[in-house]
Amino acid sequence: MLNCIAVDDEPLALKLLEDNISKVSYLKLVGQCGDAFEATNALQENSVDLMFIDIQMPGLSGLQFVKTLAHKPMVIFLTAYKQYALDAYDLDVIDYLVKPVSLERFMKACNKAKELYDLRALKRQIKHDLAPEYFS
Questions:
Q1: In which domain, by residue range, is 107 found?
Q2: Domain total of the chain
Q3: H helix or E strand, kind and range, residue 114
Q4: Residue 70 sits in a domain of what CATH number?
Q5: Please, is 56 exposed, middle or buried when counting C-beta atoms within 10 Å of its C-beta (0-12, 13-18, 19+)?
Q6: Which long-range contacts (CB under 8 A, 24 or more apart) does 69-76 make?
């Protein structure tokens, strides 16, 4: 199960995102945020594996916010603007979705996140099983 938060300043977009997340069996929505400042609190209060975040928001943009995070979860951007894609990928995000997002495209992005999550878990398990003899 991946704990996730949704960050978008538009209530309708946040509701649609919540609906999409509810259709993915391995996602658990642990927070909904209207801006980056609420997202900061959600990240501090919850164990978050994946963040869905808009780019154009008042205060800090999604890009600016992700840049500030020392320990960021996996990130999927959802935005109406194509022109920020290169900047987003420089931040090692999982995916960049342009609104409106079909459920099929949303699922594809979620599956990429789940695969990376599972690979990281496997890596941790292997290190744990072999430690300390090989990783000391």
A1: 2-130
A2: 1
A3: helix 103-130
A4: 3.40.50.2300
A5: middle
A6: 69/43, 73/4, 73/43, 73/48, 73/49, 74/49, 74/50, 74/113, 74/116, 74/117, 75/50, 75/51, 76/50, 76/51, 76/52, 76/109, 76/110, 76/113
For 35, residues 6+ apart whose C-beta sits below 8 A from its C-beta are: 7, 9, 57, 58, 59, 60
Can you give the pTM of this predicted structure? 0.92
CB 58 within 8 A of CB 9: yes
> What per-residue confidence (pLDDT) applies to 19?
97
- pLDDT for res 35: 96
Profile the chain (136 residues) by mean pLDDT over runs of 10 residues.
97 96 98 96 97 95 96 96 92 96 97 97 85 57
20: left (phi over 0), alpha (psi -120 to 50) or beta: alpha
Which pLDDT does position 105 carry in this prediction?
Answer: 98
